[in-house]
Structures are given as structure tokens and as C-alpha cells.
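Database export, one record per block. Field names are fixed; values are copied verbatim from the stored entry.
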Amino acid sequence: MSDRVLAYGGGWLDRAGALRADPEWVSARLTDPTAVVLPLWRDRCLVSAAQAPVRLTGADAAGALAAADETVLLGLEDGTPVFAVDLSERAEADAVALTGAAGTADVRALVGRLRPAEAAVQAYARGLLHWHRQQRYCGSCGAATRPRDGGHVRACAAPRCGRLIFARIEPAVIVLVEAPGSPDRCLLARHAGAPEGAYSTLAGFVEVGESLEDAVRREMAEEAGVSVAGLAYQGSQAWPFPAGLMVGFRATAATEEVRVDGVELLEARWFTRDELRERVAAGRPLGRVDSIDHQLLGDWLAAAD
């Protein structure tokens, strides 16, 4: 699965990491008449009547840049600068009117309409603009922060501090656990808050001082009481909602014993492939269609018993 492009991956932009630290270069890109601007409002894309994300150019792009609460350089598309602007301080209707859009939509609701790379760029814009709204003040001294490097860094404005703040991601592991014996079975769990009969793979955030493999073993033991005998990396997925990176594994349990924690997981059980096929036939999806857990389950279901 590692060679497969998952949703929110495969973005085509040159992020111009070696150039965006030059403020004069960024300023020149802002005034480029060919520049493309992607407007967002409170983490939502501005969309056309056909539910396509709005891409502004020319005078429309210049108007959005002038009205933006925050502007970030996403990168270059065949040499053309691509920016994202945040219009969150405006009323939704005003943001829609300003951009000539028909409305707003969550990028996760648009995935089926977009090519993977298009969804990747929209999610990238969403994640970066969300980060800016959360980092307006320095965590060390409390002074205001200011954007720099095309919006990829924020700097504390206090002369005695000057701390640089970089956008961070929050890695999480997501695991398809297989039973140790025959027949082939995988472990799915019902999470707290999930409706009766809604099962999914197990997942959890990586903690400070952990490797990804350590996180898999800890999470499986803490949440489901499962001891992992072996594991293998399957692939990763950008998940900027707001700042995740999902890292997929397939693991083999040492025993069939399962003891859920009763807090994050309410129940867990082993499923055969036939049982999963019956769930699919009954209209139960294999996780979110845009999530790596869908691929983990789909790949396992497609394998021969």
C-alpha cells in the first residue's frame, strides 16, 4: 500500500522552501498578475455552484488578497504562485460575495469530486491557515506573533524573545490487527460516542519520546489489552484536520485475548472476511472513504484467506 496515493496526498506544488524566506521574492509573487488565490472561510473552502473550490486570478485574486485576514504562499504551480487567504473574520455571506462563490464546504465533503492532488492542496491550505489562527501569541512571553517566510513561520514580536514558531504536525498510528491463528480475522472496535454496531480500526496519537512502533504497541495494549507480536508499516496519509499525519500499520496479536479500556473503546471483536463482506453488503462502509483505515480494511478484505 505504501506506493498508493491516498486522499490528501500527491500534491503537485513546488513549496519553494528555498525561496519563501526572502520577503522581496514573496512580495513580487503577491503582485504577479498570474497568481492564483484559494480563499477559505473558517476552515471551509469557498466553492462554486458545481461544488468546485474557487480559484481566483487577476483582479479577483487581488481583491481577495487585499481583504484577507491571513495570506500564505502554498507554492508554485509550473512557476505560477499559488496563495491561500483566510476570510474568517468576515461573515460567511460576505466571504461568499467577495469571492463570487456559491457557498462554502468542508474539503472532506468534496473528496469524491476532486482529483487527489487537488484535495491535497485544499487540505494543505486549510491546515496552514488553521495553524495561523491558533498561533497569534507567543507561548513563551505572550507577545503577539507575526507571519514570515510566506506564512510558514510566525515570529514573536517582542525584541527580548523573538521566538520562531513553525507549523507542526501531530502523528498518529492507525492499525489493522490480525488474529494469530486460523481463520484469518481482524480486530475492530466500537469507540466511545459511536453508534451501536459501528466498528473501526484502532488508532492513537504518538506520545513524546515514542517511536511509531512503540506507539502501536502501547495503544493496542492500553485501549484493547492486545499484545502485539509483530507489525509492518503500510503507508501514511496527510490528515490536516487540523494537523494530523496518519501512519498505517498491520500488526499481529500475540493472543486472541481482548480487554477494552471502557473509556476510549466500548467493545472490540474479531471479524472474519466473510463477516466484513456481510457488513459491506448491508451498507456498513469500511471506514471513511477518504481515510487510510478504508484502505487498510479494503486491502485486508481483498487478500485471500
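Remark 1: The chain has three domains: 1-134, 135-167, 170-302.
Remark 2: The radius of gyration is 22 Å.
End of record.
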